[in-house]
Write a structure and sequence with these properties.
Layout (H helix, E strand, L loop, with lengths): L1 E5 L6 H10 L3 E6 L6 H4 L6 E4 L15 E4 L6 H6 L1 H21 L4 E7 L5 E6 L10 H13 L8 E7 L1 E3 L10 H12 L2 E4 L5 E6 H13 L2 H4 L2 E5 L5 E3 H11 L6 E4 L6 E4 L2 H7 L7 H13 L12 H11 L3 H7 L4
Parallel strand pairs: 1-2, 1-4, 2-3, 4-5, 5-7, 6-14, 7-11, 8-10, 9-13
Antiparallel strand pairs: 10-12
Length: 338
């Protein structure tokens, strides 16, 4: 099967591309490479690489593609607020463009990478049928993309939406602006876990390899199981209150539980049920926050991760690119994202 992964050099995409190759897929990676080529350098001779943007890539690259996994996006809430209109252009309209072109060019499966952030702040255990309450531009763009691509599903074009829990774990395109990853970095650098106030907020979590496996399960599932469906991706056991999660991270890497508060109180607060994907696709995560925290700490200790790499904090890296005027040409010609 020939699979196109948009955002294939990103935090999740660079892991997913490797896992797809391991299972024998023919992989094409479409990415803007704002964070460099290194995340896919070791597999570049085994995949097709297209340096382009979901908003204006030549649709001819979809010819002969069997499935599209659409991950390209501004990847978190702070980045989404740098320029809300550009965020909507990419994360909403860009993804709708990918979906519609995929259908036009005869792609059989389209999988949208969405987020549990669409639930915002709600009480109780939330399912795929729960009301949405997006609180940020990033979350709103996900919701809008979901609503527009799902109706494209028909007998010849399978559409599936995966609402991912907050992801953690090691990646060659590392991100330390994710909760567990950032906690480990704080411990490594300062001996203290940074905790976003007030620590009582609930959030679901999933390891990067587990969420990548969920996309593969959808690829390999019969269409009648996944077509026109939304799945939360994670596990009920990995719903955590942030303060308790920080304590678990400290225990995982064998350090005393020292912490420091940062930021304003987080308005996002949600617990999510993952029973649907477990019962429908037999999805069971293999990794826990304990294992994820330790693998990141070990990668920092042995030098595989640079704790001071500015590219690991997405919003700061975008701001640095702006300050360095490295994107002026793209801004003038294409109306770049920033």
């Amino acid at each position: 099967m020939r699979v196109l992964v948009t955002g294939g050099a990103g935090y999740i995409g660079s892991i997913l591309c490797r896992m797809l190759l391991e299972r024998g897929y023919d992989v094409t990676c479409l990415d803007r490479f704002f964070f460099g080529f290194d995340p896919i350098r070791e597999i570049e001779d085994r995949i097709k690489v297209v340096k382009d943007d979901v908003r204006w890539f030549n649709p001819d690259i979809l010819g002969g593609i069997d499935a599209v996994i659409d991950m390209a996006a501004l990847s978190n809430d702070p980045s989404g607020e740098l320029d809300p209109q550009k965020t909507l252009e990419i994360n909403y309209r860009g993804r709708v463009r990918v979906a519609k072109l995929s259908k036009k060019f005869g792609v059989k499966k389209y999988i949208l990478a969405s987020s549990c952030s669409v639930y915002g702040s709600q009480e109780g255990m939330l399912t795929e049928d729960s009301q949405l309450n997006p609180l940020t531009t990033y979350a709103k763009a996900n919701m809008l993309a979901e609503k527009e691509v799902l109706p494209l599903a028909d007998k010849t074009f399978s559409v599936t939406i995966l609402r991912q829990a907050t992801v953690y774990g090691y990646s060659p395109r590392m991100r330390f602006d994710l909760a567990i990853n950032g906690m480990v970095l704080g411990f490594f650098k300062n001996g203290k876990v940074p905790i976003m106030r007030d620590g009582t907020q609930w959030r679901p979590f999933v390891h990067i390899k587990d969420t990548s496996n969920a996309f593969i399960k959808v690829l390999e599932a019969e269409n009648e199981l996944v077509n026109g469906q939304i799945f939360n991706v994670g596990s009920d056991e990995q719903n955590f209150q942030i303060f308790n999660l920080a304590r678990l991270v400290a225990e995982s890497i064998g350090l005393p539980f020292n912490y420091e508060w940062y930021g304003s109180p987080d308005r996002r607060n949600y617990r999510v049920s993952f029973q649907k994907i477990r019962k429908t696709l037999g999805f069971e995560p293999r990794y826990s926050p304990r294992e994820g925290a330790k693998e990141i700490f070990d990668a920092l200790k042995d030098g595989r991760l640079n704790p001071d790499d500015p590219r690991t904090i997405t919003v700061k890296w975008y701001k640095q690119l702006m300050e360095m005027h490295k994107l002026i040409k793209d801004i003038e010609i294409n109306g770049m994202i920033l």
